Amino acid sequence: MADNYDFDVLFIGSGPGGYVGAIRAAQLGLKTACVESRETLGGTCLNVGCIPSKAMLHASEFYDAAANGMMAKMGVDVTPKLNLPVMHDQRRDAVKQLTGGIEYLFKKNKVTWIKGFASFVDAHTVKVGDATYSAKEVVIATGSSVTPLPGVDVDNDKGVVVDSTGALELAAVPKHMVVIGGGVIGLELGSVWRRLGAKVTVVEFLDQLLPGMDGDIRKEAAKVFAKQGMELKLSTKVTGVAVKGKTATLTLEPSAGGAAETLKADCVLVSIGRRPNTEGLGLENIGLETNKRGQIEIDGEFRTSVAGVRAIGDVVPGPMLAHKAEDEGIAVAEWIAGQTGIVNHDVIPGVVYTWPEMAGVGLTEEAALEKAGGDKAAIKVGKFPMLANSRAKTNHEPDGFVKVIADAQTDRVLGVWAIASVAGTMIAEAALGMEFGATSEDIAYTCHAHPTHSEAIKEAAMAVRGKPIHM
Ligand code: FAD
Ligand code: NAI
User: Fold this and answer.
1) I need a surface site. Which of 164, 192, 283, 313 has the fewest CB within 10 A?
2) Is 144 annotated as ligand-binding?
3) Which residues belong to any copy of the Pyridine nucleotide-disulphide oxidoreductase dimerisation domain (predicted)?
4) What domains are defined for the chain?
């Protein structure tokens, strides 16, 4: 036991940041605790985020393939019948198995799970219920929760105005779902219910969907979702939602101002972003302040401005992604154990798990250009359409492309973006290449198995340097 503390390290929060960090810390020989206020471990990701949303996306994709004629195209004639309770059960089962798996891993690695809500008494002591626990180092891994829309009351139990958690649990397919916010959650969960038969309207404040992604991806995304039957109202803001019984009436206005219109829906999904969880944590007791966005600022070793207190995951600046939180969890544990923990924040892939998937890693073309001071000759871009990829074509998956952005002088890959049925899997190759400082030539001369979607990455890299073969 370190210096008379109860623990060497105590993590607050058991999401992908906290649970992974706690396991790594224990593996490194540190006496470790993890406090979690939920009934189960795994945080947002396992309980109400990544895992249940992917369970619904995967299941609804089967239904859609049968309903939209995709299966018939391949000679499989079926008329699908939706069994929503079973679909929900398999989702709950996935969550149960995975959260239970973390409990098993905690036991196996001797991580102490403290149940309850933690708040700081001082930098080395937290209070959980009536008990207090001390640790030499405390890591804040409290994650994030839904950003509310002022004046709009979410009531997940009623199912009319819901957030992502409510949208995973709907007991019936809505007739008309209006999604407020055309970001990752709105498009993933909007896709689930569109596939299952809902009319879906997405209201997005900006002039394109998916802020943060490459401009070409954002433009193509709008085309793809419109083709699938989603109604997109871009450059539009929601100024109010009135609920009467089971009907919501939304008031919309052009983002730049102008005449208002109304829209009726039996389900409204509020998905306008997430904000860091720091309320009730007692940060004032240790003199730790948050920045303007409510995040906890950290240095390269995840140290906050208060000695002995570090922070990781959604509660600190950077993309709010599970794998980023996990890598930070491992790295923070390594620093605490006296090692060097590395996370390359320039190479964090992002994936939207719609159909097709949309993924990227590194700089967008816009950001690369900005970094080059607007000098178009400083970057080279190669693109290859999935329509010309033999596997995508064979699988009846014509939408999308791969785009490789490279430094014109060094040929080093700066960013890779893809829309393809399996873009989320394909992007791992680009991340690995970038981590090793790959040039577009390295990727173009790497043998890719045929026939795979990944050949499109090779051909896009060839396009950076001249011409691909199949176009
Ligand atoms: P969290 O997972 O939010 O965990 C924090 C935990 O801390 C929570 O369990 C909370 O109960 C607990 N806690 C908070 N305060 C206290 C306290 N004071 N005391 C004790 N416990 C406390 N990311 C991806 O990379 N891929 C995806 O496919 C993906 N899909 C998503 C789908 C949805 C619908 C949502 C909402 C999010 C999704 N995300 C996805 C984002 C991902 O869930 C988060 O980035 C990730 O969970 C962040 O991990 P974290 O450990 O920082 O925090
Ligand atoms: P988001 O930030 O991705 O998108 C929110 C969208 O709402 C933006 O496009 C924004 O312009 C728009 N918006 C904001 N206010 C608005 C208003 N008043 N009216 C209309 N539009 C408005 O946030 P989202 O989708 O809620 O997701 C939160 C976080 O969860 C994301 O940061 C993401 O990283 C993470 N997540 C990741 C997933 C993945 O990796 N596949 C899946 C789901 C969530």
Assistant:
1) 283
2) yes
3) 348-461
4) 7-146+275-336 (3.50.50.60), 161-272 (3.50.50.60), 350-464 (3.30.390.30)
What is the Cα–Cα distance from 241 to 160, expressed in whole angstroms? 11
Peptide bond into 356 cis (omega under 30): yes
My answer on whether omega of the bond before 80 falls inside 30° of 0, hence cis, is: no
Question: CB–CB of 275/294 below 8 Å?
Answer: yes
Amino acid sitting at position 241: V
44 lines ligand 1 (CB under 6 A): yes
Question: What is the per-residue pLDDT across 142-198, written as a single tens digit (0 to 9) for each?
Answer: 999 999 999 899 999 999 999 999 999 999 999 999 999 999 999 999 999 999 999
Its ipTM equals 0.99
pTM (2 d.p.): 0.98
Q: Which of 44, 99, 112 to mutate to test the pocket of ligand 1 (most atoms within 8 A of CB)?
A: 44
With bands split at pLDDT 50, 70 and 90, how would you rate the model's confidence at 229?
Answer: very high
User: Which residue type does 277 have?
Assistant: N
* Closest ligand 2 atom, residue 185 Cα: 25
Bridge partners for 379 per DSSP: 407
